[in-house]
What does this fold into?
Amino acid sequence: MAILFRQLAYLARRTTHKPLDDVHPLKPIPYRWRICALLFLATTINHLDRQVFGILAPQLQADFSISEEQYGWIVSGFQASFAVGLVSAGWLLDRFGIRLIYAAAMLLWSISDMAHAFGRGAVSFGLARVGLGFGEAGNPPAFVKVLGEWFPLKERAFAAGLVNSGANIGAIVAPLLVPYLAINFGWQWAFIGTGLIGFVWLALWLPSYHPPRLHPKLSAQELAFIESDRPEGQPLVTTGPVSYRFLLTLRATWGIGLARFLTDPVWWIFLYWLPKFLAKNHGLQLGSIGPPLLTIYLVADVGSIGGGWFSSYLLKQGYSLNTARKVTMLLAGVCVVPIFFASRTTDLWTAVALTSLAVAGHQAWAANIFTLHSDIYPPRMVASATGLTGLIGAIGGMLVAPVVGAVLGFTGSYIPIFTVASLAYLAGWGLLQGLVPRIAPLQVD
It folds into this structure.
């Protein structure tokens, strides 16, 4: 993984046709990219753990007589606790710092994942899902805050794209690893085995992470590079109490939050309904759905890394922060528009290609919208702002999920769902442009 991050960082710097200073394929990887690798691993574990229950749901529903209605409540419990966890984790990270709060979040969701192994019905599984959702919510505000502290503006979106690509790796690993563990060792060990991975991450994270200015292994040269484009006088690491009431008075909060309200639900639609869409419209079964899904999520990784890279590239070419972020996000939104045709084609691989483009567009969008928080908010507010806009996005997901179910139940067609999804990102971009006409650091007392 370290070699991969070294090469990606090297290629990102080469595109500027400028000296490569501390990034070279034969030199030791700069410490900030090691931190980025740990964030990528945490995000991969995050999305791996949340999918175990869904993969095993048919067996667990049959073994423990869990009805579809009860299963729906279990899913809702996860989403609700995830939403609450976002604002809670954001406040804790800004108030008490990253190192231990991020570790506590990983510990909570790993233990909650393993607790599923002791489930014996809807209530016990539901409680485990609530704990999992609350713990996993700590990942987005934590990695956004870490990237804001460890990367300059010209690398931040690219680093966010790398970290965000872990979501797709988790989605790829889960259907490969979980059935193997369940078949060979029993379904309980699917939860225990994936949960134990979190403890490996903790063993890597705790000795590796300290704030940049306090890190014993960070060179003065790299620290100077990290701080190279910070506003004069802005401290690199700050913690302290943050008022959500104050954040809600800021146009940036509503611009980012409403953009996420429209677009975050589309990602949840891809996660929850994409396999069902391929099965219904193209007759794919469990044994044949793997190659299309693998293709879609691999292309999504390209979108996540490419979207972050392109935004960073524009910055290095001299474009303003506002132009670099918004042009990239607009292009990402345009990539989602053709999903409109995916529900109308009868050819499987045409549908896969259109869906892959849309999912890649979402991931490019996500890499940049996450980065906006550290672009705009002071360091001591970044995690809280990320949690708050994430809550607004999660509310959108909770509202859209039952609507999608009702539309499918009434029409049996994905056409209305994909039609709305195709326009969501352009509408979100318009709201962001209207409420945040210029992306720039806030000057806050």
